[in-house]
Amino acid sequence: MSEFPVPAAARLPVRKTYKLYLGGGFPRSESGRSYPVTSAEGEPLAHAALASRKDARDAVVAARRAFAPWAARTAYNRGQILYRVAEMMEGRRAQFVQETIDAEGLDTARAEEVVSAAVDRWVYYAGWTDKVTQVLGGTNPVSGPYDNRSVPEPTGVVAVLAPPKSPLLGLVSVIAPVIATGNTAVVVASEPHPLPAVTLAEALATSDLPGGVVNILTGRLAELAPPLASHADVNALDLAGAGERAAELEEAAATTLTRVLRPRPSTDWAAAPGLSRITPFLETKTVWHPVGI
Amino acid sequence: MADTTFAYAPAPESRAVVSLRPAYGLFIDGAFTPPTERLITTVNPADEESLAEVSVADEGDVDRAVTAARRAFEQVWSPMPPAERGKYLFRISRIIQERARELAVLESLDNGKPIKESRDVDIPLAAAHFFYYAGWADKLAHAGFGAAPRPLGVAAQVIPWNFPLLMLAWKIAPALATGNTVVLKPAETTPLTALLFAEICQQAELPPGVVNIVTGAADTGRALIAHPGTDKVAFTGSTEVGREIARTVAGTRKKLTLELGGKGANIVYDDAPLDQAVEGIVNGIFFNQGHVCCAGSRLLVQESIAEEVLHRLKERVSRLRLGDPLDKNTDIGAINSAEQLARIRALAQTGRDEGSQDWAPDCELPAHGYWFAPTIFTGVTQAHRIAREEIFGPVLSVLTFRTPDEAVEKANNTPYGLSAGVWTEKGSRMLWTAGRLRAGVVWSNTFNKFDPTSPFGGYRESGYGREGGRHGLEAYLDV
Questions:
Q1: In this predicted model, what pLDDT tens digit does every residue of A69-120 receive, in sequence order?
Q2: Which residue ranges does the record assign to the Aldehyde dehydrogenase domain (chain B) (predicted)?
Q3: Burial of B446 (0-12, 13-18, 19+ CB in 10 A)
């Protein structure tokens, strides 16, 4: 049996650099900036990338490029990939638990519950991908010789402001329903607790999720949210984490008639979500065709 | 014999079924107020003759209407057994059917649209819409919005002038069926069928305050949209006004649905059934003088058949009959207002200025009233304003394409996303194309068909929310 040169107790750990997740890659902010992240108790944890407006615009470009091919995947395939995300998260369970403890100040048992709920949420939405069309769409009995059907379709690029106080379960709860139906997402992670989002990005990157389907920015909400809200190539805006800025962001979104999901006064991220976060990011398309011989 | 043309004898529908008051008040809390001090005159766009004067609701009037609607919501309409609510809507639907000819003539007088359209499309569809949503009133638990979906409260509704009574029906029927009460503002230039509808509500013995109609212009609309006492805003109209409304509503509790402009592409593939396609192109852009948000105003024709299609199209358009809206043989009526006519003329002029070629049949326009001949622009590129902006008039822009990919790319190259058309005999190609078009309604081998069961509404800057069908209930439920 060979001897390791340094005993485990004396070894210097290799730390992780927390970066952005953009177009399938992990770049630093183009601005070169970062910001210190502390635990719930105020202990320094790491530096996170401080994304710029330009990073936000790059993320929209990546999300737009990824949209058509992702929406064109079969619902079955999207379901398989979302399920794969759950698998990848389970494999990194210890890391997510530790980051949840650090970020939310929870005890280990409670953090385990949060991570379990986050993993199970992917499984939940993996199962929705190929059911939404039947549940929300259908044939319309028009009074004439026409075949007429309505189907839900993804609305496009969705800017998601993740809830700041639930940096893992809340984050998964806002991303998964958006991409399940074929949308792509630009996500602003929890500003005070961004580290679980970067680790989630690493799970996403190893789940066969095409690059650009989810793009995760860490940084200041005040800097990143306004350009996303008013961006002409953003089709919808989830204000879950907008806080006091919700009204001004909704107003900015009005200019390009961006669909807006307003924040609820209090959201229990552990509760079963149903379709409530799926339908706001869908369009209904109705197709007519004459019937005859 | 060659120079003998078949001539139509005039076949005017009688105006006698319509009786107008000289001046109308507002319909608030189940009764008409005396006419307000400020009045606006609504004219017949076909001859510029005055039809009647209608009131201009100010902020105080709007407030009284909202207060009446709130009281009716809390005390009468929302507590009422849903089946009884539905029966009121069935009643309204029946009265619209009974008074259909009167409504059709009035609609054509006030709007300028041909009687055959108001008689065969607008009014029957309005009645059908009430009949459809009437049946939902006591079945909401089965609509997929939870076991006991709740209404929102008071809805503020602002509608356009292109389908006055039909847009009223699209707004009021689902709102009432779900237990809301409404304050509706009809368009400034087409208030008369809404005021007749108020009478119909009285005939149906609808409880006071459930439906309130406030007439006026843009200021009245703004006052209604901004009123803090409403829970819902529903608007159909231009994208420009839609943006303003979305800004006004931002940060409030109000739920918003918008049905806005469009620049619909009508794609004709080389294997299309040409006779039907030409009918569809004509119907797509010249139905209702092109005053249709979902009009097929961009014709995308495959290059190999472009010449043939244009030839047939011009032949067909040459045979359209423009003139008296009340004549049963009229295909194209009057432009609704002087303001709209000026806008159509200005945009058509940009087409010529930017290098497109316009063609219109040799048809005589009446000396009085607002008229615009059906016009076809060729040599249009995607950069031209007439290919990008909604004209809302009888003006067709023709572009060509070579491959299906190019057709889809051009069709989607617009900030709008309301409607599109596809003409091909090949089923797989139709489905491929329909799947890629970013539009809320796709008509394949047909165009401009509407039905109360069929959800209608846009993608992108054509607005959000759907009207019609089960989907249309969501706009008025707290979900």
A1: 999 999 999 999 999 999 999 999 999 999 999 999 999 999 999 999 999 9
A2: 36-478
A3: buried
Out of A141, A150, A254, name the one closest to residue B250 (CB): A254
In a domain, A258, yes or no: yes
The total number of structural domains in chain A stands at: 1
CATH number of A245's domain:
3.40.605.10
**Which ipTM score applies to this complex?**
0.96
What are the extents of the domains in chain B? 15-260+459-476, 265-444
Chain A contact set for B474 (CB, 8 A): 279
Q: Does the pLDDT at position B256 exceed 90?
A: yes
Q: Which CATH number is B265-444 given?
A: 3.40.309.10
**Is A257–B128 a contact, with Cβ atoms under 8 angstroms apart?**
no
Residue of B nearest to A155 (CA): B459
In this structure, is residue A15 part of a structural domain? no
Cα–Cα distance measured from residue B200 to residue B135, given in angstroms and rounded to the nearest whole number: 19
Any chain B CB within 8 A of the CB of A271?
Answer: no
Mark yes or no for CB contact B250/A155 under 8 Å: no
Domain, as residue range, for A124: 20-267+274-290
DSSP string, B265-276: EEEE-TTS-HHH
- pLDDT 10s digits, B68-77: 999 999 999 9
Give the pair of three-digit tokens for residue B352.
Answer: 């010529």
Chain A segment 190-249 residues within 8 A of B by beta carbon are: 232, 235, 246-248
Fold topology of B15-260+459-476: Aldehyde Dehydrogenase; Chain A, domain 1 (3.40.605)
Catalytic annotation, residues of B: 259, 293
Q: Which residue of B has its CA nearest to A139?
A: B454
A interface mutation test: which of B294, B447, B453, B474 has the most A CBs within 10 A?
A: B453
